[in-house]
Structure formats: C-alpha cells, structure tokens
Specification:
248 residues, Arc Repressor Mutant, subunit A, 2 domains, single chain, 8 strands, 10 helices, alpha+beta, 46% helix, Beta-Lactamase, two-stranded antiparallel sheet
C-alpha cells in the first residue's frame, strides 16, 4: 500500500521485510528494492527509535519498541484480569504483589495489591523503577533483543548468566538489589503471540522471605503469570472471560 508519503512508505517496506526474521543489509536491499544508502539510512533511523535492532551477527530484526506499544495497547485487557489474580497471589504468599511493564530504560508498576498490615514493600501504581535491578527487571529483559540486553548489563546488578538461568526456569529472584533488606520473585506475562509484555511479582522483607525466596514462592508467582497469559490469549481470541480468582 502506498500512502504518498515517500519516507513513510519506504520505512514500512523495511519493517515488512523484517517480519520473517533477521536479515543482512544486502538482503534487506534486495527484499525492499530500495537503494542501499536509503535502506541503511532508514534502518539506522528506525534503530534509533527501537523499531529495528541488530542481532549478534549484525543482522537487522524487529526491535523492542513494537513489544512496548503492544503492551500499552493490551494493558486494558491485562488490567481487567489482573485485580483478582493479584489479590489471590497476595493472600497466598502474604506479600505485596505487583505487575510491571517496560517503557524504555525503566519499568512501570501498572497494578499492585499491597499486604494490608505489618512490614511490607509497598510499590504504588505508577511508580517508575530502573531496569538494572530487581526480579521484574530481569523478567522484562531476559527475552529482549541481545543488543538491548547488553546495554542494560553494563550497569546492572545481574549478569548474562543470570538472565540465561531466568529463561531456562521461567522465573527470577532478587535479594538486596533494589533496596537492602528487600527481595522479590517475578514471572513473565505473555501476550497472545507469546511475547513477554509484562512481569508479575511479589516483594517483601528479606527476614520473612529468606535468602532463597524462589524456592518457596516461584511456583505461585509462575502460576499467576500463566493465568494472566492465558486470560490475554482468550481475550485476544474473542472469548468471554469469567470473573473471580484463579486456582493458584
């Protein structure tokens, strides 16, 4: 489809050529039929806006900005299903529960259900936290593009080996990363296409959750993440969602 806005039409041709996977600059030139300097200039501009990124071989692929926009677009559906599951998770674990999504170099708390009394880690809705520490940050980063992972790892409290372990086991934990004496457990929430769009987590004091909180809480947090992922898939398929808490 041609809109008459030349630079936009050319940029869309580049993005469409990347839908099937990563390609080299030469392959991108061949697929789009555009001049090599034009492809390089537009791909570089799209990379600056994170619509395009490069893999470890230097090939072009679709960037993380699409995931961020999809997360924002699907946020209403996620929030509609989140309330009961956060409440159930809080009750089952006895700790405050949150949902985070990534926005650029930060993560934002889009929903929470705090422990009602006693010592607790309270993170209000709308709170903006860094991506270099915390279990939710590890989840939001672990399945990201290699280039984006390396950018954060330069100043992160975790390393590539930790993220590889997160991908293998499906959950993350942090102890004394964001704040001394606080730990957290997180798991992914995936959209209908399987991409990680958010992270669900619990957080609380180290003295109550222990030095290895994952052993005790990971199964419950993972179950909550799977429930919300399934809810998003059903909502995306146009099926009616029932209300109430899940069987964590």
């Amino acid at each position: 489809m041609q809109t008459g806005v030349g630079v936009l039409d050319k940029a869309v041709r580049i993005l469409e050529a990347l839908q099937s996977g990563s390609v080299s600059l030469g392959q991108l030139v061949k697929a789009t039929g555009l001049a090599r300097p034009t492809v390089h200039r537009l791909a570089t501009a799209l990379e600056q806006h994170r619509f395009v990124c490069r893999d470890e071989q230097g090939h072009y692929t679709l960037g993380s900005r699409f995931g961020e926009l999809a997360a924002a677009a699907g946020e209403d559906r996620l929030l509609n299903a989140a309330g009961p599951i956060l409440h159930t998770l809080r009750n089952r674990t006895g700790e405050s529960a949150q949902i985070f999504r990534r926005e650029g170099d930060h993560r934002i708390c889009i929903a929470c259900d705090d422990r009602p009394s006693g010592l607790r880690n309270s993170i209000p809705t709308g709170a903006v936290l860094p991506m270099h520490a915390g279990a939710a940050a590890q989840i939001l980063l672990a399945w990201d593009a290699p280039e984006r992972i390396h950018q954060v790892l330069h100043h992160a409290h975790f390393n590539a080996s930790r993220l590889n372990e997160v991908r293998k086991r499906g959950w993350a934990e942090s102890v004394n990363e964001n704040e001394q004496g606080v730990c957290s457990i997180a798991a992914p929430i995936r959209n209908a296409t399987g991409q990680v769009m958010a992270a669900i987590s619990i957080s609380g004091p180290l003295e109550r959750m222990s030095q290895a909180p994952g052993r005790h809480y990971a199964p419950l947090v993972m179950a909550a993440g799977r429930y919300l992922s399934d809810a998003l898939k059903r909502a995306s398929s146009g099926l009616t969602e029932g209300k109430g808490s899940s069987s964590l």
